[in-house]
């Protein structure tokens, strides 16, 4: 964050400074007092179950020098009526001050956002100082908090943008209009919220509509709903994917014995072989998206390929771990939808080893399609895994779809106990479900 005094912050957000207004914030903004650091701004929200203002002193002990909140605290405080609106206004102001030397990339899609964001951050970091969304912190709070991590040295700002309702991405692009907009796909994530894939497509298209004048849209050539977003902008468009007409094309994909992809990235003018240190053939498409966005930002495809070879993903995204029993755990427990589960199952099937065991839980927010989609995932899993373990009552349709390969486990403890009693050297275990199913607890217990 650029240095700002408490008085200056109050002026920017239309608040009132309480305490020493000359205190200067030099660090990041945080909403968790445990993540405060020297010079940071603690943003306090009064929620239904917890009041952040009560943790101001704790944040101060960790290094926070000021608070943005709705009432005074023991630290110098900017008092506002609406803390969220004030946080967003402050973020827009800070990035506006930095705009001349900053390239902003917005990225969205139904699945693969976080992994592609991580890959893109690696590509851009090879060229200049880069700030990118931490994990999947991609909502109305996460985006401004990421923006406030930018400072005068930052050259690239990568913002993952998620949505649960029509208009969510439009609201985020009003904070900062991206120079580059990357749309990965239109899938079934949050189908229950949106009601149809057409509504999801309209929402993802908000990122393209929100481009800065002259900005570049980077679109998935393999997804017709995404390619159609070309009509939403009069600016430059770059495409990526396996399609013959893609501007950044994936060719000659291969997987090694641990399921890690290698492939060629080809443009009209150049090509480069790339090997990813990540699990899953689907990562090749994500890498082509990152390379295309990098190309739009001025990074040559050979430099992008070299950077991609060193990339790592946020936790719980196809994260491989060797277990003491000699089995391999693939922890992909952060989130799930039908498309991402299929991609994870394809990765499981590609890994050499003994038995392949898919431990699957509920996929949330599928609306009326939930039962049918769970059953279809079970059928898909049965063709790629030796055992399909469905965890929890809501996951029972997965077991129905998997048929004779299925095992029904009541909950986390049952899953851990069943796995511990059966895993052997060479087995490969995939753990995947929506975040609300908390199968990360199963993965953690196995480790």
Descriptive account of the structure:
- This protein has helices at residues 6-13, 56-62, 83-98, 113-125, 142-147, 168-175, 191-194, 197-209, 224-227, 283-296, 301-308, 338-350, 370-382, 396-402, 412-420, 440-446; strands at 4-5, 16-18, 24-25, 29-30, 41-43, 66-69, 77-79, 103-108, 130-132, 156-160, 180-183, 216-220, 237-241, 248-255, 261-266, 271-275, 319-322, 328-331, 356-360, 387-391, 406-409, 428-432.
- The chain has 447 residues and is of the alpha/beta class.
- It has a 9-stranded mixed sheet with strand order 9-10-8-11-12-13-14-15-16, with helices on both faces. The protein has a 6-stranded mixed sheet with strand order 17-18-22-19-20-21, sandwiched between helices.
Q: Helix and strand layout, with pairings?
A:
Elements: E1 4-5, H1 6-13, E2 16-18, E3 24-25, E4 29-30, E5 41-43, H2 56-62, E6 66-69, E7 77-79, H3 83-98, E8 103-108, H4 113-125, E9 130-132, H5 142-147, E10 156-160, H6 168-175, E11 180-183, H7 191-194, H8 197-209, E12 216-220, H9 224-227, E13 237-241, E14 248-255, E15 261-266, E16 271-275, H10 283-296, H11 301-308, E17 319-322, E18 328-331, H12 338-350, E19 356-360, H13 370-382, E20 387-391, H14 396-402, E21 406-409, H15 412-420, E22 428-432, H16 440-446
Parallel strand pairs: 4-5, 5-6, 6-7, 8-10, 8-11, 9-10, 11-12, 12-13, 13-14, 18-22, 19-20, 19-22, 20-21
Antiparallel strand pairs: 1-3, 2-7, 14-15, 15-16, 17-18
Helix pairs in contact: 4-10, 4-11, 6-8, 10-11, 12-13, 13-14, 15-16
């Amino acid at each position: 964050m650029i240095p700002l005094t408490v008085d200056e912050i109050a002026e920017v957000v239309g608040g009132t400074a309480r305490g020493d207004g000359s205190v200067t914030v030099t660090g990041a903004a945080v909403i968790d007092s445990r993540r405060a650091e020297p010079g940071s701004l603690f943003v306090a929200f009064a929620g239904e179950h917890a009041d952040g203002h009560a943790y101001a002193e704790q944040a101060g002990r960790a290094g926070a020098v000021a608070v943005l909140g709705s009432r005074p605290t023991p630290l110098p405080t900017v008092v506002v009526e609406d803390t969220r609106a004030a946080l967003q206004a402050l973020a827009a102001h800070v990035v506006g001050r930095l705009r001349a030397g900053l390239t902003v990339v917005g990225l969205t899609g139904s699945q693969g956002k976080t992994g592609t964001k991580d890959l893109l951050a690696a590509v851009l970091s090879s060229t200049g100082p880069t700030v990118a969304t931490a994990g999947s912190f991609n909502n109305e709070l996460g985006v401004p908090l990421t923006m406030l991590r930018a400072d005068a040295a930052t050259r690239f700002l990568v913002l993952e943008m998620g949505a649960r309702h029509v208009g969510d991405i439009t609201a985020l692009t009003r904070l900062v209009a991206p120079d580059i907009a990357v749309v990965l796909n239109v899938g079934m994530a949050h189908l229950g919220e949106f009601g149809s894939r057409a509504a999801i497509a309209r929402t993802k298209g908000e990122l393209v509509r929100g481009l800065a004048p002259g900005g570049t849209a980077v679109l998935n050539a393999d997804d017709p709903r995404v390619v159609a977003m070309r009509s939403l902008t009069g600016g430059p468009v770059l495409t990526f994917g396996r399609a013959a007409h893609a501007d950044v094309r994936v060719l000659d994909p291969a997987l090694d014995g641990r399921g890690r992809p290698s492939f060629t990235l080809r443009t009209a003018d150049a090509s480069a072989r790339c090997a990813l240190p990540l699990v899953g053939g689907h990562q090749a498409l994500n890498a082509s998206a990152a390379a295309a966005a990098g190309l739009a930002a001025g990074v040559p495809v050979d430099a992008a390929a070299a950077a991609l070879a060193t990339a790592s993903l946020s936790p719980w995204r196809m994260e491989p771990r060797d277990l003491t029993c000699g089995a391999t755990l693939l922890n992909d427990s952060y989130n799930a939808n039908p498309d991402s589960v299929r991609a994870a199952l394809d990765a499981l099937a590609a890994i050499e080893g003994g038995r392949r065991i898919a431990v699957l839980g509920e996929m949330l927010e599928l609306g009326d399609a939930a039962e049918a989609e769970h059953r279809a995932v079970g059928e898909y899993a049965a063709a790629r895994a030796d055992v399909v373990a469905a965890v929890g009552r809501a996951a029972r349709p997965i077991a129905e779809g998997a048929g004779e390969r299925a095992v029904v486990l009541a909950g986390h403890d049952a899953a851990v106990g069943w796995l511990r009693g059966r895993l052997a050297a060479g087995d490969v275990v995939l753990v995947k479900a929506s975040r609300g199913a908390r199968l990360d607890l199963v993965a953690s217990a196995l480790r």
